[in-house]
Design goal:
Blueprint: E1 2-4, E2 36-41, E3 55-60, H1 64-72, E4 80-83, E5 89-91, E6 96-102, E7 110-113, E8 117-121, H2 126-135, E9 138-139, H3 151-156, E10 160-161, E11 164-165, E12 170-176, E13 182-186, E14 204-211, E15 213-214, H4 217-234, E16 240-244, H5 254-260, E17 267-268, E18 271-273, E19 280-283, H6 289-307, E20 316-318
Parallel strand pairs: 1-13, 3-6, 4-6, 5-20
Antiparallel strand pairs: 2-3, 7-8, 8-14, 9-15, 10-11, 12-13, 12-14, 16-19, 17-18, 18-19
């Protein structure tokens, strides 16, 4: 049952996997599920960087009821986090404590509703959302073609590209908290700012509704093609990367600051600052997550020393070192 979350209400049981968590696989008692539950599950193949340790438990629910009943059966305080396409994410080499939830096909639907609204599952990729909108003649969602992730991820972090962001189109979303509660949250209650929402760690966006405008499918398609071509020309899309590494500071571009600090092409172990786009880190083949995160921290240090600007990570880093 989905209920409305009152503004300011804080759900219980919202610990998220992190370096300070000590709970491990032995602390989670598996309950009957209809989906797939895997112990010590490798995560490196599920993230764009292709690095990092395993999840204590990886749960791929069969549907919303399977997810909520499983979470309700967990010991209070068990770390929970969701993973989508694995972009914009560093899984640390020690793995992720507690439970990682991966929303697959059961959560990847996109349906056209009345009044130019799309209802999307939390596991639906941005390209599917934008393509469905195009085919239905719904404008305003073309920018999602340029976000390499799923609805759950870009609703949580107010994902954006090419002058637009999720805050511009979100009506509301359905969110499951680590205690199994499922609530509906209007967009205005998320306190959206640049790449940030008030959703607590461990909250899983399972569905969202986006508002578009009437548009011409051919014009929408041309804009999507322009976005795709621009991304291909400017970003290292065919490498093991995690997308934009650092947030753009007010009035500045992160890539320009990285360039000014002389970090384009900088290497650490198997990790490198992309020569093509200085705000992208890449795994050249055998990088550990420690290499990648360490390189990012070195870039932050050099940028601060050179320009006085403290870059903030846009990529999420989770798990044990």
């Amino acid at each position: 049952m989905t209920r409305h979350m009152q503004y300011g209400e804080e759900p219980k049981g919202q610990n998220a996997p992190g370096a300070g968590e000590e709970k491990g696989a032995a602390d989670v008692t598996p309950s009957p599920v209809r989906g797939k539950l895997t112990k010590d599950a490798p995560l490196d193949k599920l993230v764009w960087f292709k690095s990092g340790g395993p999840a204590d438990w990886l749960f791929e629910p069969a549907d919303l009821e399977d997810l909520t009943s499983f979470l309700q059966g967990l010991e209070e305080g068990t770390p929970v986090m969701a993973i989508g396409l694995g972009s914009n994410l560093i899984i640390r080499d020690g793995g992720v404590p507690g439970v990682v939830v991966r929303l697959g096909k059961p959560f990847a639907s996109v349906e056209v509703r009345r009044d130019n609204i799309l209802e999307c599952g939390g596991g639906a990729p941005g390209i599917l959302v934008s393509s469905t909108a195009r085919d239905a003649g719904i404008a305003g969602m073309e920018f999602l073609r340029g976000i390499p992730g799923t609805v759950g991820g870009f609703v949580r972090m107010n994902g954006g590209a090419y002058g637009r962001e999720v805050a511009d189109i979100l009506v509301d979303c359905d969110v499951v908290f680590p205690n199994g509660d499922c609530v509906n949250i209007p967009a205005e209650d998320l306190d959206y700012t640049y790449r940030h929402s008030r959703l607590p760690e461990g909250a899983i966006v399972v569905a969202a509704r986006f508002q578009g405008d009437p548009g011409d499918p051919e014009e929408i398609g041309r804009e999507m093609d322009r976005i795709a071509a621009e991304r291909e020309a400017s970003q290292p899309l065919r490498t093991k990367t995690g997308g934009s590494t650092f947030k753009n500071p007010d009035g500045k571009k992160a890539w320009q600051l990285v360039d000014e600090a002389g970090c384009r092409g900088l290497k650490m172990g198997g990790a490198q600052v992309s020569e093509k786009h200085a705000n992208f880190l890449i795994n050249t083949g055998d990088a550990t997550s420690s290499d990648i995160e360490g390189l990012g921290e070195e870039v932050r240090r050099r940028v601060s020393e050179k320009t006085g600007v403290a870059l903030e990570w846009e990529i999420k880093r989770v798990g044990r070192p």
